[in-house]
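Consortium newsletter contribution from the modelling node. Members have asked for a concrete example of what our holo predictions look like. Here is one, prepared for the 7TS complex that several groups have been discussing at recent meetings.
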Amino acid sequence: MTITLDRETIKQDRALTTEEVERLRNEFPILRTRPNGKPLIYFDNAATSQKPYRVLCAIDKYYKNQNANVHRGVHFLSEIATSAYECARKKVQRFLNANLSCEIVFTRGTTEGINLVSNSYGRKNVKAGDEILISYMEHHSNIVPWQMLCENTGAVLKVLPINREGELILDDLENLLSPRTKIVAITHVSNALGTINPIKRIIRAAHERGAVVLIDAAQSASHLPIDVQDLGCDFLVCSGHKMYGPTGIGVLYGRAELLDSMPPYQGGGDMILSVRFDKTTYNTLPHKFEAGTPHIAGAIGLGAAIEFLNSVGMKRIEAYERQLLDYATNILKNIDGVHIIGTAREKAGVLSFYMDCAHPHDIGQILDSLGIAVRAGHHCAQPVMEFFGVPATTRASFALFNTRDEIDALAAGILKVKEIFE
Ligand code: 7TS
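And here is the predicted structure:
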């Protein structure tokens, strides 16, 4: 029995093979696009992922054959649409290993999930003098909503610092956490540095001080396996469009007990049980937090994206993308005048760099002329740029369909930049 399990584990952890990646590439019609007459090399997966046929077909099928509003009609189509929408919720529940499907709230994305928690949980539980702890490497979406909450309540924002490798300085965690800390909001993976944070340890430390923890899983949900019960987090947010799913749909996971105790974020249809002018009764979870007609096609598309991820296997995706990152890091760090930002020991497939000879936007444009899509800018993480003393970086971010050949093409592109600017 043990031997069988061991073999199974090894099989699951095995990185994708070249042949498997080739087959997966065929599932992405956009990879046949030829920008500037060149084959598309898409390295902007941290901004948004591309969509496989399975997702496109699910959305198409919904609008062609199932379109109706949910939770309100008694007719045939409405029942089908409702069942497809709720089935998507169950897929998300299993994917994140949430205990209950009512702990999954559909949102517009990570940003809305964080705003929901800061406005609902935050305004109810945070008072003047309380503290909220975030980190130096957060995306603006996990900074600004907490600043707004502090402005509204008189709470204080504390920031866990990072070191030159782009890792959190965990020695400071104990000092920054206090009995006044009400919320800790931390990213699982940094979009600007690629660092994978030791969130389980942070969650445990925060809980010891009585704080609740929100995990920003925007950059991890499609790259690493996530188990919210094992992590023990109170809230976790992610975006469908970074998980091979559609834009405009995202997920807030919240422990039922907490969600139950929270006031609604928005008022409207579907989030109520009864409305009278003198008293309105709110709906049960998760509908209390889903006011108005939801993004039904988006949820169904996200469900299909999750099936796609499951069919490949999260552990195998993680193992393969780590190989890609190691391969790319080894090449880029040996090119004179190229500096990688974010050299943490634990990293996901994000490679941010700057060059002595050229501005990140110029690098981005030259790579674009070669058919290579990267992002150049501050990546909505201005404090990270400030810490490293750069205005911007060029960022290549990997997905399961990227290949070593594409990384070789990126390296050739960088050499071309050097040729032009040096
Ligand atoms: N948190 C992190 C860590 C992110 O990387 C992003 C988006 C967000 C939150 C916000 O997600 P949204 O779907 O609600 O917009 N990051 C990026 C990026 O790196 N490039 O474009 C968007």
